[in-house]
Amino acid sequence: MMNSRTNGAGGKTHLEITANDQRGNILSAATVEKIENISPKIKRMILKVEDQRLTFKPGQWVDFYVPGMKECTGFSMVSTPKTMAENGILELAVKQSIHPITNWVHSDCGAGSQVNIRVGGDYFYSPVSDADLSRDILFLAGGVGVNPLYCMWQNLADLYSERIGLGASGNNPTLGSVHLMFSAPSVKELIFKDEILKTCEKLPQFSHKFFVTGNLEDDLKTADCEISNRRIQSEDIRSVLENVADKQNLLCFICGPSAMTNSIADLLKHQHIQPDNIRFEKWF
N or C: which end of the chain has fewer CB within 10 A? Predict the structure, then answer.
């Protein structure tokens, strides 16, 4: 779930599209602590959650309700379960659209605004063992589809940091590689770019490739890292897979517009990635 799923496929609402997805039992009130622009089209919203029993898995979304509005929509979390457990804080990144609730987020929402949320979704990755953490992971994101993948990325970074800390005490875990390929229309829409770069500097198992699809030579000249001015292509994926020792065990997570998701999934299959190891969340 990247942004609003209302009036998506076939004109169905978010609740209709996700009717068969798992959902938590807790509908919690939440207060907006801060809302800010992180790109020309995307706002980051920081929520203080009232019911501390609310939990989620990295990659899931929330049903998002605004008091007084009949509609409901869904937004993916971009913060981690650890932040929720320790501070009761949940973060969302919301792209501008004509959907009534999304429009409210961009035009009327402010610090102190009240909303209601409930966790849902079958698209997540929540490793629990050293065996899980030994698997290589490939994330492929398009635009604001990076949201659930960034949540998974951060959660893995937290877990890797913990395991490396244990290794310093004599336990030396084997950790898999984690690679992110992120494509957006412009450099400014590569949200979380700076945070992603910092993670890669801190943890050698983490790496990235950034892409922008617009004709943005001036933006690229001033960028603080390497960015390819094109879409993700088969050779880009192949170059990453060359460094994966066990492709049969590689997990791939895709999230973006449907056309991109389908295209990337086909590219992965042509590289002999097991279909069961290709997981995606489509943008409706």
Answer: C
